[in-house]
Design a protein that fits this description.
The chain is an alpha/beta fold. It folds into two domains: about 260 residues, Alpha-Beta Barrel (TIM Barrel); about 70 residues, Alpha-Beta Complex (Type Iii Antifreeze Protein Isoform Hplc 12). It contains ten helices and twelve strands.
Length: about 350
């Protein structure tokens, strides 16, 4: 991957509308320009959609359960979920639209029956939702496709993760692991970003990232600083839209701010060394101190530590070079607070 791989998770924020879904894809693909320095930065890398097969996911009791919520799209939970599902052809249409915008297309497949979309197109990556990390039959079927897989760990511990990897690695090793907390929105005391370090230490052969469900952009930015190679974040058109995930998602301005700060952070990481950057050279000359006359001094005066001090700019002798100055005679008269340069000395 070229830099941090950022996925804009659309999920069901399209509210069952292909047109809304396309507009959210537009948000993910928008150019990111840092006006302060005039830099064009890389936008999101991918969008992610979710494909379900409700017949293989929900019990009859859940399907017929009344769903009385401000975010409900149906009288029962089954009707609500059905409204939010896009068919295979719609997913293919969105795949083509995203690819036309230069974005990868990631698909969360939540049931073996939902793999029917693979007859229409091959996603760039498949996503295993946190709740399905223990769905080993589904993992086996996804692994058989040989498509790169991203897994979220939001509902699992190390043993469940190891069991999932054991199934998937029978087929291939192009696997990424995302630290995740399945709490919507996630309270900050529960984020535990240090899990990223744990995953990097114990699973060094895999790309490690972070799927974020907090409000705002601080935790995904911090995750990148801690070494996350993949970031996943919910995105939408308007956080006030109807839908359970809308309020916890990033709107257009939030997407811009996260991508601006994240890409600038990537640039900022640099190398493991200490040196004077090119940009600091001007400030160094302007602000550092040089040896200067403390009082009016006549030509021929021998310089001592008592008749000099330090002033800006820093283009003369530093105090570490005082042995090149102390004990020497001045060639000319000096007024108080003049910088002493090499050609001023006999």
């Amino acid at each position: 991957m070229n830099g941090v791989y950022v996925i804009g998770e659309v999920g069901q924020n399209h509210n069952g509308s292909v047109d809304i879904a396309k507009l959210i894809i537009d948000v993910a693909a928008r150019p990111v320009v840092d006006k302060l320095f005039g830099n064009s930065l890389k936008p999101m890398d991918a969008v992610k959609f979710t494909k379900r097969d409700l017949r293989q996911e929900l019990s009859h009791e859940m399907l017929v359960r009344p769903y009385d919520s401000p975010h409900s799209f149906g009288k029962t939970y089954g009707e609500h979920r059905e409204v939010l599902e896009l068919d295979d052809q719609s997913h293919f249409e969105l795949y083509k639209y995203a690819k036309g915008k230069g974005l990868d297309f990631v698909e969360t497949i939540c049931a073996i029956g939902a793999m029917s979309i693979l007859k229409f197109f091959t996603p760039d990556r498949l996503k295993v939702a946190s709740r399905d990390l223990t769905n080993l039959p589904l993992l086996n079927a996804l692994g058989e496709t040989k498509i790169p897989i991203i897994m979220s760990t939001g509902m699992s511990g190390k043993q469940e993760l190891d069991n999932a990897l054991e199934v998937l690695t029978k087929h291939h090793s192009n696997i990424s692991i995302l630290h995740c907390v399945s709490e919507y929105p996630t309270q900050y005391q529960n984020v535990n970003l240090n899990t990223i370090q744990f995953l990097k230490k114990h699973y060094p052969q895999y790309a490690i990232g972070y799927s974020d469900h907090t409000i705002g952009i601080s935790t995904p930015i911090a995750a990148v600083a801690m070494g996350a190679e993949i970031i996943e974040k919910h995105i939408t058109l308007d956080r006030n839209m109807k839908g359970t995930d809308q309020a916890g998602s990033l709107g257009m301005d939030g997407v811009f701010r996260m991508m601006r700060d994240l890409r600038n952070l990537e640039i900022s990481m640099g190398v493991e060394d200490i040196f004077i950057s090119e940009g600091a050279q001007t400030a160094k000359v302007k602000l550092e101190r040089s040896i200067a006359s403390l009082t009016n001094l006549l030509a021929g005066t021998i310089i001592t530590e008592n008749n000099v001090h330090l002033l800006s700019p820093g283009d003369g002798y530093r105090w570490s070079q005082k042995e090149e100055v102390i004990g020497r005679k001045l060639k000319r008269n000096f007024t108080k607070d003049e910088i002493i340069y090499p050609n001023d000395l006999e």
